[in-house]
C-alpha cells in the first residue's frame, strides 16, 4: 500500500469515526437535555419500585468506585456482597442505581446459590457528579445496600473534540 492511499484511508477513517462520535454524542446529549427531570427523586422512585415497602439495610454490600473521575464516559465500578451463597442464604440479584443520568436504574445482575460469589464489575457512563447506589436482594427477601458519591470533572458527552 502506498503512502497516499494509506493517508487517504486514515483521513477517511478518522472522519467517519469523528462523525459517528458526534452523531452518537449529540443523540445522547439531546436525551440528557430532554431528561432535565433526572433527579435524586427519580432514583428514589426507581428504588421504591424494586423494594416496595421493605426496609433497605446498610451493610453486606461493597461498592468500589473512584470518588473522583476525570471523565464520566467510562467509570469503573465493582460490587460485591457478603454471603455464604448456599441454598438457604444467597444473593439473588444486585441492582445499580444513579441519581442524575436519564435512566436511574442502571443494571441488574442475577445470581443463584451455585454462583459461589456474588460480585461483578462493569463501567458506567455518568452525566455529572452524583450518588451511586448498589442494592442486593437476598434469598430471604431482605435488601442490603451501599452508596458512594462520585465527582465527575468532565461530564459524559461534553468531551467530543479530538
Helices and strands in order, then pairings?
Layout: H1 3-34, H2 40-51, E1 56-58, E2 61-64, E3 68-71, E4 75-81, E5 91-98, E6 105-110, E7 118-124, E8 130-138, E9 143-154
Parallel strand pairs: 1-9, 3-9
Antiparallel strand pairs: 2-4, 4-7, 5-6, 5-8, 8-9
CATH superfamily of the largest domain: SoxY domain
User: What best-fitting shape do the alpha-carbon axes yield?
Assistant: globular
State the share of residues found in helices, binned by percent. Answer: 25-40%
Number of domains: 2
Tell me, what is the CATH class of the largest domain?
A: Mainly Beta
- Biggest sheet overview: 6 strands, mixed
Distance between the terminal alpha carbons, to the nearest Å?
27 Å
- Corresponding CATH architecture of the largest domain: Sandwich
Q: Kindly provide the radius of gyration, computed on alpha-carbon positions and rounded to a whole number of angstroms.
A: 20 Å
Q: How many E-type strands?
A: 9
Order of helices and strands: HHEEEEEEEEE
Low-confidence stretches: 1-9, 22-37
Q: Do you know the CATH topology of the largest domain?
A: Immunoglobulin-like
Which whole number gives the mean pLDDT? Answer: 82
Class computed from helices, strands and strand pairing? alpha+beta
Helical run tally? 2
Name the beta content range. Answer: 35-45%
How would you describe what is shown here?
This protein has helices spanning 3-34, 40-51, and strands at 56-58, 61-64, 68-71, 75-81, 91-98, 105-110, 118-124, 130-138, 143-154. The chain is of the alpha+beta class. The protein has two helices and nine strands, in the order ααβββββββββ. 27% of the residues lie in helices and 37% in strands. β8 and β9 (143-154) form a beta hairpin. The chain has two domains: 1-34; 37-154, Immunoglobulin-like. The two termini are 27 Å apart. The strands form two sheets. Strands 1, 3, 5, 6, 8 and 9 form a six-stranded mixed β-sheet that branches. A three-stranded antiparallel β-sheet has the order 2-4-7, with no helix packed on it.
Amino acid at each position: 500500500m502506498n503512502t497516499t492511499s494509506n493517508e487517504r484511508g486514515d483521513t477517511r477513517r478518522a472522519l467517519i469515526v469523528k462523525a459517528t462520535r458526534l452523531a452518537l454524542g449529540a443523540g445522547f446529549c439531546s436525551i440528557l437535555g430532554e431528561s432535565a427531570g433526572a433527579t435524586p427523586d427519580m432514583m428514589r422512585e426507581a428504588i421504591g419500585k424494586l423494594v416496595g415497602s421493605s426496609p433497605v439495610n446498610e451493610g453486606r454490600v461493597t461498592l468500589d468506585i473512584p470518588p473522583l473521575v476525570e471523565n464520566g464516559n467510562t467509570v469503573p465500578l465493582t460490587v460485591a456482597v457478603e454471603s455464604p451463597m448456599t441454598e438457604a442464604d444467597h444473593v439473588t440479584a444486585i441492582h445499580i442505581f444513579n441519581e442524575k443520568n436519564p435512566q436511574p436504574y442502571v443494571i441488574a445482575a442475577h445470581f443463584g446459590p451455585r454462583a459461589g460469589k456474588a460480585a461483578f464489575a462493569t463501567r458506567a457512563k455518568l452525566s455529572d457528579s452524583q450518588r451511586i447506589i448498589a442494592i442486593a436482594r437476598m434469598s430471604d427477601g431482605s435488601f442490603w445496600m451501599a452508596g458512594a458519591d462520585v465527582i465527575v470533572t468532565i461530564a459524559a458527552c461534553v468531551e467530543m473534540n479530538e
